[in-house]
Amino acid sequence: MDFHKDILKLDSEREVERICSFIVRQVREVKRNGIVVGLSGGIDSALAVALCVEALGKDSVFGLILPEKESSPVSAEYATKHAEELGIRTETVDITPTLEAFGTYRKRDDVIRTVFPEYDSASKSKITLPADLLARESLNFFTLKVDDGKGNIKTARLNK
């Protein structure tokens, strides 16, 4: 399948029906009464949980909000507000201790140092995607941006 702008032309109502039917089949197949959805506060999880509510009803959907020390507090706010609008129950669990126990932050920093050896814990980093995701030269890469906290920003184009 070629990736092009027309790939996003679809019959929305038909797709919602198809996805909801899939959700119902999967929940029945595993013999469960409902589904647990991770809510990040972003568009992907917002759409996923809305489709689950459409498919199963609000009483069969439970939202997990999993903030950590580096996530923006507004993300949890968005997730909570969306869950309230949908009428689903939620629980918020700070996963920072778990990520620290697994060495997630340390491992991330080690990987960044393979690209930028001078990177340290005082630095900030983010991954950005290209502006035109459909351009052939934009496929399968992202940019790592590192700020040393002194106004010096370095970037590196990385392949997936």
How many β-strand stretches? 6
CATH superfamily of the largest domain: HUPs
- What is the quaternary state of this protein? single chain
Q: Can you identify the CATH class of the largest domain?
A: Alpha Beta
Order of helices and strands: HEHEHEHHEEE
**Which stretches are poorly predicted, pLDDT < 50 over at least 5 residues?**
none
Number of domains: 2
Helix fraction, binned, reads 40-55%
Q: Which helices and strands occur, and which strands form pairs?
A:
Elements: H1 12-29, E1 35-39, H2 43-56, E2 61-65, H3 73-86, E3 89-92, H4 96-101, H5 104-115, E4 124-128, E5 141-147, E6 153-159
Question: What's this model, at a glance?
Answer:
The protein has helices at 12-29, 43-56, 73-86, 96-101, 104-115, and strands at 35-39, 61-65, 89-92, 124-128, 141-147, 153-159. It has 160 residues and is of the alpha/beta class.
